Amino acid sequence: MTRRPRLLMLAAAAVLAFLHIPIFLVGLYAFTTEEASFQFPPPGFTFRWFGVAARNDDIREALVLSLGVAGVATTVALVLGTLAAGAVWRSKFFGRETLSLFIVLPIALPGIVTGIALRSAVNLAEIPFSFWTLVVGHATFCVAVAYNNVIARMRRTSPSMMEASMDLGASGWQTFRYVLLPLLAPALVTGGMLAFALSFDEIIVTTFTAGQQQTLPIWIFSSLVRPRQRPVTNVVALLVVVVTFIPIILSQRFARRADEN
Amino acid sequence: MLLALPALWLVGVYGGSLLSLLSQSFFRLDSFAGTIDRTPTLATWRDLFTGANMAVVGRTFTMAASVTVASVIVALPLAYYIARFAARRTKAWMILAVLLPLWSSYLVRVYAWKLILAAEGIINWFLTRIGLGPVLEGVLDLPVIGGPSLSTSYLGQFIVFLYIWLPYMILPVETALERVPISFLEASADLGAKPLTTFRKVVWPLAIPGIVAGSIFTFSLTLGDYIIPTIIGDSSPFIGLAIYSQQGVAGNLPLAAAFSFVPIAIMAAYLTIARRLGAFEAL
Q: What are the residue ranges spanned by the domains of chain B?
């Protein structure tokens, strides 16, 4: 190991600070006593706004909707992502390249394109906006995350494991249930948590597929465009950070432990 | 069998949606009746290529390009440090520190900058404290990038774009730099190259695939974003915002549809070039 250049270390630390100070400030502002402006330093600290936010019906409903959509969309994405990964892994087939392109397309194209495309389809088909249009939208971009995690795991799994299971007389279902699924479990957990975090705070595709419904990010966005109840917005922002941080940190730990085994 | 369900979903739902979007762009808004005329026409595409709309495209393109260049400059030191100098445990920890903001709430991170850039916010407070207040005022007085306050200027907008997409640049550059064998650097030093020369002649060319991979994200994401221009800046339209308001307030879905093929076309061209430069191996 060579010596570490001091200047480079400082620059690296500065970039890390740049990435994290803003998130830290959101946490700080959730406790400010200032109601009307973004004054720094905050004139005082209080827990009051947490109570106000908890009693707000709009926020509670938005939170429930966001959690519900994220939960269902993650489940759909895991099933579809695993199936697609299985197909790409096990066989070469006509259109294989096209399928893998289609999987990454929803996250490679700008969100607004995905959003407006889905909306125009919903309009043309004259389907009313509902919980399920949101789920379809979210699942479409979550599939990519599930797929990436599962296929990475599959590539490190030897197909001979499954052949051995079949040779010993296990049915296709038994092989899946007792051999493949345990092997894929870490990838499914990691992919699922990331997909959940992605869906929970998604705003762009959501805006286009929500109709009149309000998810938590939509609530935050509308209170940013028309400022109202600033202190409550701060609290909700902190809540979203916490809800998305937990699955990310957990999935990282999980992935690392799976790598060590 | 395995394939049917995901293929149906992605190609059916997503491909179908994209096709329906394309078909919409050949309709036309009847501006008197305010309804959509569904006879195929190229009128909407002609509208797209008028001055005002092309100004939007130019503005977005300039912002995307400057954000991309700046993110390379900011990402390199951290990526280089992680790839080359950090010990194993520190490395895992630092990569998590880059991933956390990437995966955590995009909207909240934009909001954070509303707090930071506000006239009564921390930047103004800090600069005034250390006696640099006049410098900030001087910068804000500049034409084009300046404005009444940081949170309503292009400069502020640029900082927020840079902040939000930065992790997308750090990670692929780090991956690319990780693959540079230390022996290359030692060889360069043994042959008498100064650290800066080694960086320019050895590290930089090997980092290029990572940089191109990262720039796909920073560029594409800036092209399509409409949240940041809504919350920060003087609300002059970017492509994303134009699409959003055309389909929403103006009710001109055909023009919005045509507009959304601008980022798609730019990205298609960009990806073709990137593939030639070998960027996909660094993803």
A: 43-104+155-282
Per-residue pLDDT for B151 more than 90? Answer: no
Q: Would you say the ipTM is above 0.95?
A: no
- Above 90 in pLDDT, residue A205? no
Using a CB–CB cutoff of 8 Å, tell me whether B10 touches chain A: yes
A 204-233 residues inside an 8 A Cβ radius of B? 204, 207, 217, 220-221, 224-225, 233
Say if A17 falls within a structural domain: no
Check: pTM over 0.90? Answer yes or no. no
What is the overall mean pLDDT for chain B?
82
- Whether A151 maps to a domain, the answer reads yes
CATH 1.10.3720.10 is the classification of domain B43-104+155-282: yes
Q: Closest Cα partner for A130 from A219, A215, A216?
A: A215
Average pLDDT over residues B71-94: 89
- The domain that holds A124 is classified in CATH as 1.10.3720.10
B7 and A37: CB-CB below 8 Å?
no
If one compares A157 and A200, the residue with the highest pLDDT of the two is A200
Torsion of CA A180, A186, A189, A192, to 10 degrees: -70
Burial class (CB in 10 A: 0-12, 13-18, 19+), B125: middle
Residue A137 lies in a domain: yes
Q: Which of residues 240-259 of B touch A (CB under 8 A)?
A: 240, 243-244, 247, 253, 256-257
* φ, ψ at A32 (rounded to 5°): -75, 150
